[in-house]
Amino acid sequence: MRAPVLANLLALATLWFTACVPVLAQAQVYRCTAPGGSVAYQDHPCARGQHQQLLDVPSRPPPGYVPPPPATAPQPVAPSASSPAPVYTPPPPAPLPVMYACVGAVNGKHYLAYHPPPPYFAPLGALGYPPQSLSQAYGAPGGAGVSAPEAAPRPRIIGPSVAAGMTEVEDACMPATHVEVCTFVQHEYDDNRQKLHAALLASDRKPLQQRELQLQDQLRNCR
């Protein structure tokens, strides 16, 4: 009696296991190999002359299978409406030259120079010194100088300078203002433009064109 009972229990266990565990659905696929070696897979029998192989493949994924997420191309990031558009910033202009405003010691003329001029010799007569003739002022040997009260601030001249009627002078110079330098550079630009229009040879025009670009860049400081 015990053997039939055990067999019945095994049969019940098999039925319970079959009912609880899902069976994967199978689909039949025909693998067809042509005489030339090409392989094709189809859901119906192969054509005559082809080697046929029947395959069983699951028609649905196994339990617990999670398909991978579909690949998506990265989307371009649109510029934000609040982001300002890039603004072109031109390079800084070339600096203006350092210049000096000077006053001539002899003629009192105002002029601009890149460097203060060194001292130089000038005729005493051009400076209004002395108020009388040289024979009157320096009649005695060695030079007595001028005794007139109006000539007191003038230096006393002796030695070779007296004999030659010359004295050493120096123009008064100080750093030029921004307006003075801009006026000078503008004058240089206008003068260079006239020379450029008058130049006929390419060899003469090239340095003038380079000078024009340089002066234009410097004049950006004056606008």
Reported for the largest beta sheet, the result is: 3 strands, antiparallel
Strand/helix succession: HEEEEEEHHEEHH
Distance between the ends? 120 Å
List unreliable stretches of 5+ residues: 5-13, 15-21, 142-159
Q: State the helix count.
A: 5
What share of residues are in beta strands? 15-25%
Q: Got a strand count?
A: 8
In round numbers, the mean pLDDT is: 75
- Describe the global form: rod-shaped
* Percent in helix: 25-40%
Find the structural class using helix and strand composition: alpha+beta
Rounded radius of gyration (Å): 55 Å
Strand order of the largest sheet: 2-1-3
Can you tell me about this structure?
The chain has helices at 2-20, 134-137, 160-164, 178-198, 202-219, and strands spanning 26-33, 39-42, 51-58, 100-103, 110-113, 120-123, 166-169, 172-175. The protein is built from 5 helices and 8 strands, in the order H-E-E-E-E-E-E-H-H-E-E-H-H. The protein is of the alpha+beta class. Helix 4 runs antiparallel to helix 5 (202-219). The chain has a domain at 24-59. The strands form 3 sheets. Strands 2-1-3 form a 3-stranded antiparallel sheet, with no helix packed on it. Strands 5-4-8 form a 3-stranded antiparallel sheet, with helices on one face.
Entry keywords:
single chain; 223 residues; alpha+beta; three-stranded antiparallel sheet; 5 helices; 18% strand
